[in-house]
TrEMBL record:
The lineage of its organism: Bacteria, Bacillati, Actinomycetota, Actinomycetes, Kitasatosporales. It comes from Streptomyces rapamycinicus. This is DUF2516 domain-containing protein. Residues 102-117 have a biased composition (Low complexity). Pfam families: DUF2516 (PF10724). Residues 92-117 are annotated as: Disordered.
Amino acid sequence: MDGVLVEGFGKLMYWVSWALLLFSLFAFVDSAIRREDAYRAADKQTKAFWLIILGLAAAVNFFMGILDFLPIIGLIATIVYVVDVRPALRQVSGGGRRWPRGRGSSSDGPYGPFNGR
C-alpha cells in the first residue's frame, strides 16, 4: 500500500513540475515578445531584467525538483510577471482582448460603427 502512495505522489510531483516549467516558459516567451518601451511606459522593470529573472526561473524549474527552495522563488517571480507586469504591458501597448469582438466598440458593425440610422 505504501508503494502505491509513494508512486502516486511521485507521478503527481512529476506533472506539477512539468506544469511549472511550462508556466515559466510561457512567461519567458511572453516577456520576450513585448516591446522594450512598453516596460518603461508601464513603469515596470526593464525587459532585460524580466528576461533574466524568468529565464532563471525556467532553468531552475528544469534542473531542480519541485520540492526545493529555488523553484518556489521562480514560481513567485513568474506569478508576479503574469499577474502584475503582463496586464500593465498589455494595457500600455494596446494588447487588449481581441476575441470575440476585436478592438471596436459594442456598436460596431462589420463595416464600421453603427450610428442608428
